[in-house]
Amino acid sequence: MGKVVLVTGVARQLGGRFVRRIQRDPDVDRVIGVDAIPPEHHLGGADFLRADIRQPTIARLLAEHGVDTVVHMDVTGTPLSSGSRATVKETNVIGTMQLLGACQKSPAVKRLVVKSSTQVYGSAPRDPAVFTETTPPKSLPSGGFAKDTVEVEGYVRGFARRRPDVAVCVLRFANILGPTADSPLAEYFSLPVLPTVFGYDPRLQFAHEDDVIEVLRLASHEPERGTLNSGTFNIAGDGVLLLSQCSRRLGRPTVPMLLPAVSWAGAALRTVGLTDFSREQLRLLTHGRVVSTTQMRETLGFKPKYTTAETFTEFVRSRGPGLLPPEALARAVDRLAVLPFAGGRHATHPTQSAN
After folding, report:
1. What is the 3-state secondary structure (H, E, C) of the chain?
2. Distance between CA atoms of 89 and 95, rounded to whole angstroms?
3. pLDDT tens-digit profile of 236-270?
4. Within a 10 A sphere around the Cβ of 107, how many other Cβ atoms?
5. Which residues of the chain have a pLDDT value below 70?
6. How do 175-177 and 167-173 pair as beta strands?
């Protein structure tokens, strides 16, 4: 008998892609996709069961279908269709609690993979240059999706203590981008003009959708020789990009604002439903965040196909041209950089070498 894999969050594009991919693996006998609403995309030969993981019925599904592997992808920062932030938080936190409770009661479950985020580290002025998996945050996230991920990981650690016989793998993804990316940061980069915090040019990392699918697939199987796919791992493409570099590659100009003005602009954007400018999102766009991926490579044995820069290039192609050609925008920024109010011709500007 092959593996029976249950995947949560399959109504989202990323969840659907993972379901279609893992069912092609030879040692997988059956894949069951679960979500509170039916997906609009196809799931290949997988079975779809409409179920809300916030409800105790998820325990019955695990028992009835003999599930041995659970891939929890329903931890996200954006609502589906007409959902609200409150619904998202309930699914992230209460849904995870119910799912873990169901896994604890099921003796058949032997492997759990959880999609988490590097947002657990927060973003603060005195952050280390690079976070490792064991680096404590300078200040815990105070709200939004970032706080959800902190709570989710706390429940997962409790589950791992109660069920030491289950291999638990937590994947902390950097900002996920790609042609079908659905995240607050993807919405931000899709704006015609990007509001930024005056005086800051944060470092950012990205993970490509394709690499997300592959590392989830790797973590859901038995580890290969010399690797270990239980534990907590940062997942990101090599390298970093400055926010100024991102804007130039998009062809979208930035509008530097003082922090209170950016907060006001974010509130206005939320009001009209354009993007989520939460406090944690603002902190990321102020201080940035970079994580080490040494454990991903050396322990998990995963090497991303895409670097951070290549991931962003793929995202740019999917979004189409911005207001300005990237080359013209780069020349304009370079001309501004040498003006007297910018520090003169000999001033160092963080975007001058960007392209």
Report:
1. CCEEEEEECCCCHHHHHHHHHHCCCCCEEEEEEEECCCCCCCCCCCEEEECCCCCCHHHHHHHHHCCCEEEECCCCCCCCCCCCHHHHHHHHHHHHHHHHHHHHHCCCCCEEEEEEEHHHHCCCCCCCCCECCCCCCCCCCCCHHHHHHHHHHHHHHHHHHHCCCCEEEEEEECEEECCCCCCHHHHHHCCCCEEEECCCCCEECEEEHHHHHHHHHHHCCCCCCCCCCCEEEEECCCCCEEHHHHHHHHCCCEEEECHHHHHHHHHHHHHCCCCCCCHHHHHHHHHCCCECCHHHHHCCCCCCCCCHHHHHHHHHHHHCCCCCCHHHHHHHHHHHHCCHHHCCCCCCCCCCCCC
2. 9
3. 999 999 999 999 999 998 988 887 776 766 666 65
4. 10
5. 1, 81-83, 262, 264-277, 321-355
6. unpaired
d(CA 225, CA 254): 48
Q: Dig out the tokens for 205 from the structure.
A: 């990392």
Contact between residue 137 and residue 124 where contact means Cβ atoms under 8 Å apart: yes
Place of tokens 């279609």: 20
Distance CA 187, CA 34 (A): 26
Q: Give residue 240's identity as a one-letter amino acid code.
A: V
Which amino acid is it at 66?
G
Tell me the pTM.
Answer: 0.88
One-letter amino acid of 125: P
47 beta partners: 32
Burial of 299 (0-12, 13-18, 19+ CB in 10 A): middle
